[in-house]
Amino acid sequence: MKLRMWMLALAGLGAATAVTAQDLKSPSTDLYVPRLGDIMSAAQTRHQKLWLAGRAQNWELAAFELRQLTASLVEAAVLYSGIPVSNVTTLEPSLQSVTGAIAAKDVRKFSKALGDLTEGCNACHRSMGRSFVVIKVPTDPQPFANQQFAPQAKP
User: For position 74, what pLDDT does the model report?
Assistant: First the structure.
């Protein structure tokens, strides 16, 4: 419930301070808006670090990485009006499941919850016409082990 309120508050703040294309074109040095790809790259890194921390049973680090991942997702929805806030809020049950697994210090629950969260990320990508960006549960600690690079088969 706290997560939902936090996400809605940030979304409301973002709606009130939405960045427009004109804002991005202005030569102001006061405004820095990270590119969506940069926010999503940070989220992807957090996703992998979350997995690594959970697999190592470093639950404090896993909780930290989950908070950072959530903040990245909220930041993307707040700064980029083309991403419906509902795409972020639909991840709430998965985020809560990961939170619960971390609190329980349960590796099996954590693995399942992270899989569900990962599928939620991919569902968002598909809904945004970015189905070619496929995130997966990492299989090893190598950088970008949590992304599938082979093209998807066309349905």
Answer: 92
Architecture of domain 2-12+35-148: Up-down Bundle (1.20)
Cα 84 to Cα 39, 50, 89, 127, 136: the distances in Å are 16, 25, 9, 10, 22
Q: What is the pTM of this model?
A: 0.76
Alpha-carbon distance 58 to 54, whole Å? 6
Our CA dihedral for 17, 18, 24, 25, rounded to 10 degrees, sits at -90
- Tally the C-alpha atoms within 13 A of residue 31's C-alpha that lie toward its C-beta: 15
DSSP-based three-state secondary structure for 14:
helix
Given a contact cutoff of 8 angstroms between Cβ atoms, the answer to whether 43 and 72 are in contact is yes
Domain boundaries, the chain: 2-12+35-148
Specify the residue for token string 């795409």: 87
**Residue reference for tokens 């945004």:** 128
pLDDT of residue 134: 95
Q: How many residues does the chain have?
A: 155
Buried-state track 56-66, b at ≥16 Cβ within 10 A, e below 16: eeebebbbbbb
pLDDT beneath 50: ranges in the chain: 5-6, 9-23
